Amino acid sequence: MSFLNSISSPPQVNSVFCSPNFSLYHFHSSFSSLYHRKQGYENGRIIRELGFLGDWKGKERVNSCSMGKRKDGYFWISSLCSSTGNSSCSSSKGEEFESEGEEEEEEEGHGSFCVLPDRWDVLGLGQAMVDFSGMVDDHFLERLGLEKGTRKVVNHEERGRVLRAMDGCSYKAAAGGSLSNSLVALARLGGKPIGGPALNVAMAGSVGSDPLGGFYRAKLHRANVNFLSEPIKDGTTGTVIVLTTPDAQRTMLSYQGTSSTINYGSCLAGVVSKTNIFVVEGYLFELPDTIKTIIKACEEARRSGALVAVTASDVSCIQRHYDDFWEIVGNYADIVFANSDEARALCNFSSKESPISAARYLSHFISLVSVTDGPRGSYIGVKGEAVYIPPSPCVPVDTCGAGDAYASGILYGILRGISDLKGMGTLAARIAATVVGQQGTRLRVQDAVDLAEPFAFNLESSTVQSDVGSDHITSL
């Protein structure tokens, strides 16, 4: 039976991830210094000067792992996956699945032992969805009665019908969702100590204990993104089917599963309190009662000195939940990521208004605003002004994930301490162009290294002078 058909009716599979031992953050305060390797960390200059964050010292590279306590009182920590990242986890049937035709990449492993960091560089709260992305023709869409270029929520039966139609086609499966695309790209950009220590990236969300839930966690682990939430027992993991036609237009079908349930508790509060940048995915505003979780998490992030970033995610989502968006954006957000249509929706502007006008307007309320405008470039707004970022040339293959990739570049620039808006935006545009020029939403490992190395060199060799009248950040 094929991988796609096997999930048309998700079986109920118990997972080792349900074990309390897997909730590492329950033991956060219990680690001794046995495994700690402290490193000086002088990045985040502009953020610290603004008083948003405290001292960024004590960075350690971590991976998702299982854990126990020995008789001598020490904790043992063992990695769930192999250090090379090219073998499947064997803890449950769910983790043994591999996607047909997926190009696997080996990530740099970190041995059998790992520790939690003093603080996470970035923690994202978002929808945990498995992406199935494939190239199809217009006839495929017509045969299934799908309108090209749209995004819609489907039920279990509709999802199964489309997946069965895809069986035998060329496709890729990935631990997807808009936010996880950004987090994986960020982890790969910061996976090696280029321009600073390797970055610690984590995500919280909701997955089921079904095979796709295990697949999702294992894939994020291999991409060096720590998924910190336990699976929902007997739950089903959400999926997004991304169908791309030869004209690079994408049609998206979302099945939410248990990803529609994200609750706020002591575990999430404990992780949020130990992060430098907390990112909220805009799609969460669609979920029932999730605004309460978002508000509590943002309040905790601000109390702990973290920056709060929000992804706008979708125009229709903003329109349906306009007041909720502004509740978060107006009271908590330091950074907002949006495309031109989403930015106009947040401003309540007409389609005739320019993206630069939206960027300028939003930057009166938000410290830093990133507005992308497809092949026309992008804008970064600060203090009522906006800097234009030219597009990076590419031959478009699949536009899915372009904005997610762009956001990773902005986050990477902030974490590496850059104050040059033009340079930060240029890197983000190059990352987005790299993803647009390939099939699939993931920034590849070698591409990430190739992008990060010259950026770090330029950062180290430049002598940036902060100037109120320039393209540099003096304060947000």
Question: Can you put this structure into words, describing what you see?
Answer:
The chain is α/β, with parallel strands linked by helices. It is built from 15 helices and 16 strands. The strands form three sheets. The protein has a nine-stranded mixed β-sheet with strand order 8-7-3-11-12-13-14-15-16, sandwiched between helices. A five-stranded mixed β-sheet has the order 5-10-9-4-6. A hairpin with a 5-residue loop joins strand 14 and strand 15. It is globular, with a radius of gyration of 21 Å. The C terminus is likely disordered.
- What is the C-alpha radius of gyration, as a whole number of Å? 21 Å
Structural shape: globular
How many β-strand stretches?
Answer: 16
Strand content: 15-25%
Q: Tally the helices: what do you get?
A: 15
Distance between the termini: 54 Å
Question: Overall mean pLDDT score?
Answer: 76
Estimate percent helicity: 25-40%
Largest beta sheet: strand ordering:
8-7-3-11-12-13-14-15-16
In the predicted model, the low-confidence regions spanning at least 5 consecutive residues are 9-104, 108-113, 463-470, 472-476
Counting helices, strands and paired strands, the structural category is alpha/beta
Largest sheet: 9 strands, mixed
Q: What is the gist of this entry?
A:
The chain has 476 residues and is α/β, with parallel strands linked by helices.
Question: What tags apply to this protein structure?
Answer:
single chain; 476 residues; alpha/beta; nine-stranded mixed beta sheet; 15 helices; globular
